[in-house]
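Pilot study result, target chain (320 residues):
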Amino acid sequence: MACNVDDMGWSENPLIFLLFFPYIDARNLLRKWRDDNERKSDDVMQLWDNVLSSKQNKLGNERHLVLEQVIIAALDCNRIETAEHCVSILSAEFPGSLRIQKYRSMLLEALERYDDALDELEQIIRKDETNAAPRKRKVAILKTQGRTAEAIKELCDYMKVFMSDQEGWHELCNLYLAEGEYAKAAFCMEELLLHNPHSHLIHQRLADIRYTMGGIDNIEMAKTHYCKAVKLNVNNLRALYGLFLCCGHICNSKAVVTKRKEAQKLAQWAMAQIQSRTQSATLDSKGAHKTGKSRAAGCDDELQALEQAFGGLEVGKVTN
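Predicted structure:
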């Protein structure tokens, strides 16, 4: 009869599982974690120390995959000696492998020998310009060292080659925000919208950036993206609050009367949505009635503060 690790409820402690079922190969457990893309570094190291380290030759054709898995787990757990041992084994068997060279650079990075790690990565990039992994590692090292400007330059060069990498655009946006380059960060989010136009989180973040930039034009654009985020996900409270704040700025600006009236109605609608969601969440909670009253009072205080901040929009009164 086949045994399922998750059904037995012992997947959290693989050593107990192997103790009671010694005939089940530990490599099946490691294979399952690889297939599920789970690192489980502590568990991997326990299996290595207690089962696999002395039985490498019995791993068959999965031996090299297991060694790579152990390298990553050892680096996560700061087991430098184990990582060095596994890297040396793979280096002896594959002396010219760029993949093993990447693991050597990761080992150097863990030892805080960043310059040596960058040299290793540069060698990999020169040999294979289409290899994305070393380029990403290089950006990560520069970011770790606090060399944000150099990391931005390196990531820009990377994005020229790998334009469809959404994670790269996200990271470049974060780096620009760290440097206060809001216009360039907004450009990165606009590129992400081209790849994923139906993501309410991307619309919300682009709106946040435009709102931070300030100015009536940016506030109008932020309002548009907040509206789109709310349309895609009606439960996005951050977008609702952002929409209310944008409308408040427009109402207190020198915009034409029709725009200000439209913004006032939209602000009232946004606050009504916020109130309905926060109050329903309070009622649905299993807390005491006293707790519900305290939360409702907190909402009223917040509503009054927002009304005072934006010149009395009467957001508590929704007009038809």
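One observation from the pilot: The radius of gyration is 27 Å. A full batch analysis is planned for the follow-on phase.
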